[in-house]
Amino acid sequence: MSLSATLWQANQDLATACLQHPFVQGIGDGSLPKTKFAYYVGQDAFFLEAFARAYSVAAAKAPDWTGFTVFYELAGGVLQELKLHQGYATQWGVDLQTVKPGAATRRYTDFLLATVWSQDVGVTAAAMLPCMKLYAFLGQQLAINGIPTHAYSDWIRTYSSDEFEPLAQQLAELADRYAILTPLVQSTYRYAMQCELDFFAAAFQGAK
To answer: 42 Cβ partners below 8 Å, 6+ apart?
Structure first.
């Protein structure tokens, strides 16, 4: 089993907790209050800006041209995702210029940026992979019976799409290429997964 698959399997408890969280289930069936999704959109846009920066730093630190190219292309994918969020923001009346990060968002972005600056690209890939892999998993699970028709259909369509899965796979391949299954890599991956769960929980609780 590859390193990325080993890490994913070792953290199935957190992946399942994310899928079963009422925030994600509310996206799945369309019942999530709009104020909670609007709060999430703003927080996720702030997070994605840090994610794009992390990809860019990882590209600069990559030990070979292949790694540089893939990290750079993945950063471009995040910029496309941010455009989607800008559309959401307009739809839900969120001014992304005035968004202030909540505690869970700041904890996640600070961890991510500290990792990319202080660690090698293998550890960085382990820190970033949970987000990509988890969202592909969530999207696919919520779309397992087809894309529903409600306010959050585009979210499910995006993360279950044939375009998103390859991005997650590219990052997994970078982790397999550069990371070694050390306690640091394992704990970094798990902390990022916990941050994902905390992020959903904060979005669910942060806007009534």
So the answer is: 89, 94, 96, 99
